[in-house]
């Protein structure tokens, strides 16, 4: 049985001490067994987050990484480094990485392969902008992001990873997507994976919705047939609010 996965994407928020405080408070709570809870702090908080969550059900993820193992890439963090820290997940291709840091589908695909090579589970983000949605391009755009982002991955790898469908217009705007509409797009993603891989891979891969998810609306998403969890920014920054998403 696949577990819904609720992941906290803190973006560039929280110092090391704030991260410690959050993980300590969350560790003291009962994480429901039927949900996988993942916290993704900035790089500097990962080591403490991994240490403090030991013995709990909490998983830790990074928000990005380089695809190379080491070398002259000033300011970057490699998959070897994350693997050494025993990080579980890594968010790849978030729309902020694509829009603000120029990440292409080809670069993201290299990162996805590097994640698997070092035992990290990728959370691959895809999603359309407002202009693309208004032009009726959502389906074609997402298929392209998937075709390039998943290139050369085996069916087993795709079955094990997480895809986050995040309409860019819904991220951090308070304008969450209609849950039925999000489910429709996620169904299309699953159908596409079935077409390029097979039915069992399409059934196994967990596909999250992301975009202004909060305690008041999460149930509307989780009750949809094809939505396997949520990637959450703003509402994941306070322990109480994040915990409400899990229960
Ligand atoms: C995100 O950062 O991926 C996100 C979905 O943010 P928010 O929940 O704030 O819209």
The CATH architecture would be Alpha-Beta Barrel
Percent strand equals 5-15%
SSE pattern = EHEHEHEHHEHHHEHHEHEH
Oligomeric category = single chain
Per CATH, what is the topology? TIM Barrel
Keywords: Cytoplasm, Gluconeogenesis, Glycolysis, Isomerase
Catalytic activity: D-glyceraldehyde 3-phosphate = dihydroxyacetone phosphate
Subunit structure: Homodimer.
Pathway: Carbohydrate degradation; glycolysis; D-glyceraldehyde 3-phosphate from glycerone phosphate: step 1/1; Carbohydrate biosynthesis; gluconeogenesis
Q: What does it look like?
A:
The chain has 247 residues and is of the alpha/beta class. It has a single domain, classed as Aldolase class I (TIM Barrel, Alpha-Beta Barrel). It has twelve helices and eight strands. Strands 1-2-3-4-5-6-7-8 form an eight-stranded parallel beta barrel, surrounded by five helices. β2 (36-40), α2 and β3 form a beta-alpha-beta unit. α1 (16-27) runs parallel beside α2 and α5 crosses α7 (138-149). It holds the Pfam family TIM. InterPro entries: Aldolase_TIM (IPR013785), TIM_sf (IPR035990), TrioseP_Isoase_bac/euk (IPR022896), Triosephosphate_isomerase (IPR000652), Triosephosphate_isomerase_AS (IPR020861).
